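Give me the 3D structure for Carbohydrate ABC transporter permease.
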Amino acid sequence: MSRSTSDAGIDVAGLVEEFDLARVGHYALIVLFLGFFLVSLETGIMTALKTNEAVARSLPFAPPTGEGFTLGNLRFAFERLSGSFFNSLFMAIPATIGSVLLGSMAAYGLTLVDWRAQMGFLSLFLIGIFLPYQAVLVPLARFWNNIFPLASMLEPTFEALPFLQGFHANLVPLIITHIAYGIPICTILFRSYYRSLPGSLVEAAKTDGASITKIYRRVILPISKPMFGVVFIYQFTQIYNEFLFAFTLITGADTPQAVVTLILPAVGASTSGIDFGIRMSASFLAALLTLIIYVAFAEQFAEGLRTESG
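Predicted structure for Carbohydrate ABC transporter permease (310 residues):
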């Protein structure tokens, strides 16, 4: 049997010996999960491109045909969300940069610099990670609305700035809140990376007479770029998609300063029911910015994960 197959050019015995059941199961599991997520994605895209009649009469994952195809859902959703896209970016970009940069500095001070009470401050950062959002919503609203109304104080200044309106000042407390709440998790992520760095880097810089701040700017910051990519993507996604703080500090979805996560639940909903085509179009448009961020920083993200995993 083996001789006949060898004559035909196929070594069946060798193939059987190399057959790895665990590897086959591994690939089967990957294909299963990949198919599960891709079918969901394909179903959403097809629904966004269908009319209401086509959504009701066709299978969810079937492509639209003939008069069932429309781009009207995407146009309507974009017009509804266009203003909130600017608000979300105006809020998410500075909040992400602030929390990531301050988290990196805090991790540097808690990892590569020796000083008293270091572990005590690190414990406070760990507690900050596990502090639930719901526990601070009421004090947060009272602080920004009654004790320190920063938005009202900044509104005249914002009215004088180009490309901004007075109502954009209402996003400033939200930015500061996200920075404060994001620093603990960013610190812990950076700390795990800094612990893997060789101590000789800092010791050599100290021997050359560099100060603590100079070591951070000249040594630590340049070699932290991959980790910055990972933390930036993570933090931007968290802040851009956050709902509870936005719902607490911004008065409602019908206000001009509303962010995407406040408006999205109401898009496509009416007294007659839910328009699934518009709802899916709005969901994809809302997710588009995070996809662009992932693509733009994909190289840094992959390099940072490799570095983090050792």
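Residues 103 and 186 are 5 Å apart (CA to CA). Let me know if you want a second pass.
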